[in-house]
Each structure stands twice: as C-alpha cells, then as structure tokens.
Amino acid sequence: MAELILIRHAQASFGAADYDVLSARGHRQSAALGLALKAHGTAPTACYRGDMRRHRETLDGIIDGLGIAPAPQVLPGLDEFDFRAVLDARFGDDLPPGLHDDRKTHFRALRETVRMWQRDEIAGVPERFEAFRTRVLAAVDAMTEAGGDSVVAVSSGGPIAFIVATLLDAPPSTMVELQLQMKNCAVTRVVFTARRRFLHTFNETPHIDAETMAEYLTYS
Fold first, then answer.
1. 150-155 and 2-8: which strand pairing?
2. Which of 47, 54, 82, 124 has CB atoms 3.0–4.6 Å from 72's, for a disulfide?
3. What is the rounded distance in angstroms from the CA atom of residue 81 to the CA atom of residue 112?
4. Residue 1: exposed, middle, or buried by beta-carbon count in 10 A (0-12, 13-18, 19+)?
5. Which uninterrupted H or E stretch holds 73?
6. pTM of the full predicted structure?
C-alpha cells in the first residue's frame, strides 16, 4: 500500500498581525520533524503543500531535515479555512474581548463557530463549508491518484481534521474536536490503494521525546 503523510504546519504567530508566519520555534520544529522522518526511513516520492506561507516555511524546514525530496507541488485545496473571517462574520461588531489574541477565548469561541459554519448558519463568510469540503477532498484525490508510494503533504489543522473525520465516516462536527487537539508539526498517516483509503495514525509527533517536549510541543 502507498502512504499519504499529512503534516500540520509548525507553530505560527498566534495573536500577531500576520498569523501566517512561523515563529522561531516553528522553524526549529519543522527541521526537527524532517530529521525524525529521515531517521524513520521516510523517503518521499512526492511532496505537496498548501498555498500559505506557514505551509511553505514548514515544508522547507522538513526538507532541510530530510536532506532530499522531490520539488513540492502547491495544492490550494490544502489551505486552511479563514477562521478569523468566520469568527468575525459570526460576531460582527460585537467581538468578545480577546477573540483574536487570547488563546482560551479564541478556541472556546471557535468550537461552536465552526459547527455553525458547517450548518451554514453564518452569513458573509468568504468560503462556505461545502466549498471547503469540496476543495479538500479534491486535493486528497489529486495526491492519491498521482502514483506516488510515499507522499508528504503539509497542510493545516482544519483540512487534516476534516480528512480524518471523513475517513472515519464521522459527522462533520467531529472535525473541530480533532482540529483543536492537533499539535504543531503533527503527522497523520493515511494508507491507500487505487480504490480505498484507511486512517493509519493520527497526531503523531516523532520529533518529540521527554527531552524535547518543552521546546517542541505546541498547538497554535
């Protein structure tokens, strides 16, 4: 069977004016993951990433650690949904204090907001859930039908969580529960044939052990 290795991006810049930039720790995480994948014998035959800066920077670090990999292909279907815009659309002019810069406030609001978005209950969002669903599944089709035996793809928590929920035949509401527990640089493995796909592992962190946990274990 072939393997699709889905990787959530490394730590970005939560609370900053531009979230779509890796932190210094995020750069270290991605390089450490590349080294760990190399130590486990990973030799990708194809590489993909979303069209976001944090995806590109994460994959660059992973490739540095691996030492060699095929030239990455960009799949915008792997991009995260615009969670900030969805939150803003829900709350309008009545944003809760700390919505975009306090982690507890942000993630508490995000859980219910994502479920409202999935039920198409929020007007004015830049992307409806059905469009998100369609593009993510199209990206999976593109990666698994291209013929690679070991495919590495860097994406974000939302798309990866949706893929996992779909493979488990779970309701869409499961997506946000998976998304909120996903670690930065976590690895999710999907094995596939020409006809079928199976979830193999979820939320692995091969670059983290007892000594490196304080440095590399992050969630946003």
1. parallel
2. 47
3. 15
4. exposed
5. strand 73-74
6. 0.95
Residue 23: how many other CB atoms lie within 10 Å: 17
Q: Are 6 and 153 in contact (CB under 8 A)?
A: yes
- Write down the domain spans for the chain: 2-15+18-81+127-216
Q: What is the pLDDT of residues 22-74, one digit of tens each?
A: 999 999 999 999 999 999 999 999 999 999 999 999 999 999 999 988 999 99
Helix (H, G, I), strand (E, B) or coil at 213: helix
The candidate with the shortest Cα–Cα distance to 113, out of 81, 137, 77, 136, is 81
Nearest-angstrom CA–CA distance, 41 and 39: 5
Q: Does domain 2-15+18-81+127-216 have CATH number 3.40.50.300?
A: no
* β-sheet bridge partners, residue 187: 7, 204
Name the residue type at position 94: D
